Every structure is written in structure tokens, then in C-alpha cells.
Amino acid sequence: MRQGVVAVSKATAESSYVLALVDGEPLPERDGEVGPGGCTANIQSGWYRLSGDEWQSFDSVTTTCSRIDRPALASRRRSGTIKHAGDTLVFGEYDRRLRAYVVTDRGLRRGDTLRTGGLLFDGPPRVYLRREIPSE
User: Fold this and answer.
1) What pLDDT does residue 109 have?
2) Which of the 8 DSSP states describes residue 12?
3) What 3-state DSSP class applies to 39?
4) CA distances in angstroms from 22 to 26, 64, 91, 116, listed in the order given
5) DSSP 6
6) Are 8 and 54 in contact (CB under 8 A)?
7) Which of 10, 50, 36 minimizes the C-alpha distance to 130?
8) Who contacts 42 (Cβ-Cβ below 8 Å, separation ≥6)?
């Protein structure tokens, strides 16, 4: 095996992490990200599921727009592959528009904690705690 490459067995146990903090604040997110049209997206909950060299994530998001009198859901589920380097993880997924695999996030897994975003990658820092996630 070449130095720097970590082999991951497909039989690796699945680990599930539930989103606990976004930018240092507990959920649901109070001050969300403002996007086009004055819409504000607030994260209500989220999770990561890691299994071998694959990942899935889900964010439950409520979007409130100034032009609409009620909130709309804009939840998002994603999946892709993981590259491992010790406790550092690089999450990638296939971008159909670019027709290429792209890095979507980076993470640091220590004990029962998974940290993403912030100084590791774009977006606010997120803290996930290891928990069981019901299967769908």
C-alpha cells in the first residue's frame, strides 16, 4: 500500500451523527442564511451517515420569504464518497452539471464528534454528535 492512502473496508460499521450546533448555536437555527429574493433559510435539524467510503447527509430547512406569507420547506439530502486521512474526512459527490466529482465538505472526526464547515471548509462551522438515526 502506498504511503498516505488509507484502505477502508466495505464492512466498516455505519456511524451516524446528528447535527447539534451551527455556528456555535443550538438548533433550530435562529439567524439563517439570507439568499435571493430576501428569503431566509433556517436549519431545523440534520444528520450525516458514514459507512466505509460512502456518506449520506440530510438537512431539514425552513425557508421564509418576505414576498410569501408562510414558510416553505427546502430540505436537502445528499450522498457521495469519503476520502480518509486519519481523523480527517473529505466528502465528495458527483456534480451532474460539471460532470465531475467535486469536494463538497471536509470533516474532522474525533471520538463521538464530527465537525464540518468553518475553517475546515466553506460555510459556518457545524458540530455533529454520534447518535442512532432511524433507517428509512
Assistant:
1) 94
2) P
3) coil
4) 7, 18, 18, 10
5) -
6) no
7) 50
8) 28, 29, 30, 32, 61, 62, 63, 64
Residue ranges in 27-90 assigned as alpha helix (H): none
Radius of gyration of the chain (CA): 16
Q: Which of 27, 17, 33 is nearest to 107 (CA)?
A: 17
pLDDT tens figures, 51-106:
999 999 999 988 887 766 556 667 889 999 999 999 999 999 999 999 999 999 99
> Which among 83, 131, 130, 133 is positioned nearest to 107, based on CA atoms?
83
Identify the pLDDT of residue 69.
Answer: 59
The C-alpha cell 464528534 sits at 113
**Mean per-residue pLDDT, 15-39:** 85
Close Cβ partners of 12 (under 8 Å, ≥ 6 residues apart)? 51, 52
Q: pTM, whole model, 2 decimals?
A: 0.78
